[in-house]
Design a protein that fits this description.
Shape of chain B: globular
Number of strands of chain B: 11
Radius of gyration of chain A: 13 Å
Mean pLDDT of chain B: 93
Distance between the termini of chain B: 40 Å
Mean pLDDT of chain A: 94
Order of helices and strands of chain B: EEEEEEEEEEE
Low-confidence stretches of chain A: none
Number of helices of chain B: 0
Structural class of chain A: mainly beta
Largest sheet of chain B: 6 strands, mixed
Shape of chain A: globular
Largest sheet of chain A: 7 strands, mixed
Oligomer: heterodimer
Chain lengths: 115, 111
């Protein structure tokens, strides 16, 4: 089954404790992206990757890191989480990032709470 | 700031009626337009994409795009209670793949 997977699905942690949220897709997609969703603010892009070894900042990159060493994986790293990073996180992927060919498919989401 | 605007709703329609959801966008060079459905606590699910002016139909769903008016809409025919969800309009303007989302319209289909 073609899908985007994320782990963990739920995480409660404390301020300053480094964490990684994994994202993997099995559709051979070039493009991957991370979004966060907050009430009243909607979905906002954190980071994206056009292909392996190429990543760039989205609209809200502060406090996050990413890496893209393999096509299928795009982990999101929070080096020192803070309470304002409490949110619902989605990973998405598409064939390409080019306009007109970029239908993005979303993972199931990770609900993160930082105390 | 590039924006995508949607009426938050809720939009309430009776079962079997046509639901009409609207979206406007500010960036005139936008090229790709998408409608996602999101149930509470779940991830966005792509239901329609449209890239050129006019209508695109897929089952009970019709997407309409008018680039001159910077307007995209989604019609849901024969609405069912299972269509009750938040519908997100998303727009892609460049070649970074970034989607700019509207706040979403909550649709309630009443039996």
């Amino acid at each position: 089954e073609a899908q985007v997977t994320q782990n963990p699905r739920y995480l409660i942690t404390v301020t300053g404790k480094k964490l990684t949220v994994t994202c993997s897709q099995n559709m051979n997609h070039e493009y991957m992206s991370w979004y966060r969703q907050d009430p009243g603010l909607g979905l906002r892009q954190i980071y994206y990757s056009m292909n392996v070894e190429v990543t760039d900042k989205g609209d809200v990159p502060e406090g996050y890191k990413v890496s893209r060493k393999e096509k299928r994986n795009f982990p999101l790293i929070l080096e020192s989480p803070s309470p304002n990073q409490t949110s619902l996180y989605f990973c998405a992927s598409s064939t390409t990032g080019l306009a007109g060919y970029n239908e993005q498919f979303f993972g199931p989401g990770t609900r993160l709470t930082v105390l | 700031q590039k924006e995508v605007e949607q009426n938050s709703g809720p939009l309430s329609v009776p079962e079997g009626a046509i639901a009409s959801l609207n979206c406007t966008y500010s960036d005139r060079v936008s090229q790709s337009f998408f409608w996602y459905r999101q149930y509470s606590g779940k991830s966005p699910e792509l239901i329609m994409s449209i890239y050129s002016n006019g209508d695109k139909e897929d089952g009970r769903f019709t997407a309409q795009l008018n680039k001159a008016s910077q307007y995209v809409s989604l019609l849901i025919r024969d609405s069912q209670p299972s269509d009750s969800a938040t519908y997100l309009c998303a727009v892609n303007t460049g070649n970074t793949g970034k989607l700019i989302f509207g706040q979403g319209t909550t649709l309630q289909v009443k039996p």
